[in-house]
Specification:
The protein is α+β, with helices and mostly antiparallel strands. Helix content is about 30%, strand content about 30%. α10 crosses α11.
């Protein structure tokens, strides 16, 4: 059996999957669970989900548990993290002033060149003064990033060593070279900055998971979904938590792929997960999820974190509705649950209840206080400028149904506008899927695939505005947890060989060494080395590994070739281990 759990900002969802085929490859959904996320007590939320799922398993033989979460992503979007200091070693040729995104920034002398050779040493006095400045401000989080550190991490390691020797009180530290094997100094420092920023949040998350499993005496493999739709073991998450920052949207996309026929039918579609806090938007092109191999963006900053293409709109069923200067405003804040469930502010969920769109839903029926929803909306309408919202009044009286309809129209208009902006931004650009680069492809979605609590109510309305066919994903309220449960483990390894300098780098494995006497490589051998190390790091000698990038060029000196520089990236491609019974064919 497999358990998938998605820890969202509003709800924690879970599914229990059991094998239903003789060869052990097919799965069926045995049980589901959905509880409110208690941010100050994650262990309790996870335990509540586990208890429901384990109770449904007559013989709880759990082989694998996979989790996804939006907690870290929400922290970044809301900028609700502790200050981070940046130690930058940029070297020549780049004005670093526009890179200073830390709460305190140190620019150091010394640098590594593009061949990985240390050209200039660090100046220790300069470094110590900078660290003292960060310490004086009480900053506990630090990111250390040197240009070309993937080709020689020596300067980053030297800074870390001095911090430890002097016993500086930094609690969370990221080194740029440990987060990606690819070049890109600006992207690397942003990646290191946000990796440090979410370390505390992820440490709490990992500890909550470990305690929950210990409470229920579960001794099994535990994984976390990454941004690229693959998984990483829980005990390795803290090596680079930034890789899982968008695991919530990735779970939605993988769940859509698992539970619908979009992949089999090679369709181009928009995927929506309408949650309580956000609406996550994904894109399928000819049946495969769109991919960002250069790196996702976080708060408008490009990173080196490879991931599925997604955009989280801070708009959901529990978004706070307010009136500012006589105008209606929905989100981005969430002020608790809907008024119908005891929350302090009206929300789109209250409007849906007033319109009787979700009244018969088992999750709302009998629990929702419809009168509280009505009263919250009536109180809100009193502050509106009637000249702009005339349709909501009839003969000087508020038409509550019309007002609720206006709220939902405004919410849908925001989602539709964002989808159209996404498609316009991709027009005439090369796009990637998890399998290939597509050049010159027209992205013309005809299908809308929706999941989340209000999906059944909102999907037809959205599809009408977009002019698409629509389909509510089976098990729409927990399909994200299905996507997490069935995601395949993934891994990427970068190998760089410089035969002229006689040096070998296996970046993600932390290997940077001189070539031994008689040790030589051609491009094919570098590819074999990259694939072998990918399997080794995944601890799976049977894993299917592919070469995602390769380059090779001669090193010329004095009009003659003195060696080659070869760089190869190998990866286990993201995908599903199976599709569950009951999904669309």
């Amino acid at each position: 059996m497999i358990i998938g759990i998605d820890v969202g900002g509003t709800h924690t969802d879970g599914v229990l999957l059991g094998i239903n085929s003789p060869n052990g490859e097919g799965y069926e959904i045995l049980a589901t669970s959905k509880v409110r996320t208690q941010k100050d007590n994650l262990m309790k939320s996870i335990l509540e989900v586990l208890d429901v799922l384990l109770a449904a398993a007559q013989v709880p033989d759990i082989k694998r548990i996979v989790l996804s979460t939006t907690l870290a992503a929400n922290v970044i979007v809301e900028e609700n993290y502790d200050p981070v200091g940046l130690v930058l070693i940029p070297g020549p040729g780049l004005n670093p002033e526009h890179l200073l995104i830390g709460d305190e920034n140190i620019l150091l002398s010394g640098y590594i060149n593009h061949r990985g050779i240390e050209v200039r040493d660090l100046e220790q006095e300069e470094l110590l003064k900078g660290l003292e400045r960060i310490k004086a401000r009480g900053i506990k989080n630090l990111a250390i990033v040197s240009k070309f550190s993937t080709r020689n991490p020596g300067l980053e390691a030297e800074v870390l060593q001095l911090i430890r020797e002097k016993d500086y009180p930094f609690e969370n530290i990221s080194l740029g070279h440990q987060l990606s094997g690819r070049l890109g100094f600006p992207r690397r420092l942003v990646t290191a900055y946000f990796n440090t920023a979410i370390m505390s949040v992820y440490r709490d998350f990992v500890q909550a998971v470990e305690k929950a499993l210990e409470e229920r005496e579960l001794d099994t493999g535990v994984f976390v979904l990454k941004c690229d739709g693959g998984t990483v073991p829980l005990d390795r998450v803290m090596e680079a938590p930034i890789e899982t920052v968008n695991s919530g949207p990735a779970a939605s996309i993988m769940g859509t792929m698992a539970m619908t026929g979009v992949y089999q039918n090679k369709e181009t579609a928009i995927a929506l997960d309408i949650g309580g806090t956000t609406t996550d938007i994904g894109l399928f092109i000819k049946g495969e999820p769109a991919f960002m191999p250069e790196g996702i963006e976080l708060n408008g900053f490009p990173t080196l974190v490879r991931g599925l293409y997604s955009l989280s709109l801070p708009l959901g069923g529990d978004s706070k509705i307010a009136v500012k200067d006589g105008k209606l405003k929905i989100g981005p804040e969430r002020d608790g649950p809907a008024a119908a469930f005891g929350g302090p502010s009206p929300t789109p969920t209250d409007a849906l209840l007033v319109l009787d769109y979700i009244q018969d839903d088992p999750d709302y029926e009998g629990r929702a206080d419809l009168q509280a929803a009505r009263e919250a909306l009536v109180a809100l309408a009193g502050d509106l400028d009637p000249t702009e919202y005339g349709r909501c009044w009839q003969d000087g009286k508020l038409d509550l149904t019309e007002f609720a309809s206006f709220i939902i129209d405004k919410m849908l208009a925001s989602i539709v506008e964002t989808i159209q902006e996404i498609l316009a931004s991709l027009e005439n650009k090369p796009v990637y899927t998890i399998s290939e680069l597509l050049a010159g492809v027209e992205i013309r979605p005809q299908l809308l695939l929706t999941m989340g609590g209000p999906a059944s109510a909102l999907s037809p309305l959205l599809a009408e505005k977009l002019g698409y066919r629509e389909e509510v994903v089976p098990y729409a309220k927990v399909a994200n947890a299905v996507g997490a449960a069935l995601a395949r483990p993934t891994l990427q390894t970068t190998v760089r060989v410089d035969t002229a300098a006689s040096y070998l780098h296996i970046v993600e494995a932390g290997i940077h060494r001189q070539l031994k006497a008689g040790e030589d490589y051609d491009l094919e051998e570098v590819e074999e080395l990259a694939m072998a190390w990918t399997r080794k790091r995944a601890d799976d000698e049977t894993a299917v590994v592919e070469i995602s990038e390769r380059e090779s060029f001669n090193v010329i000196r004095g009009f003659r070739t003195i060696g080659k520089i070869m760089e190869v990236r190998a990866q286990i491609k993201p995908g599903l281990i199976s599709r569950p019974e009951g999904s669309e064919n």
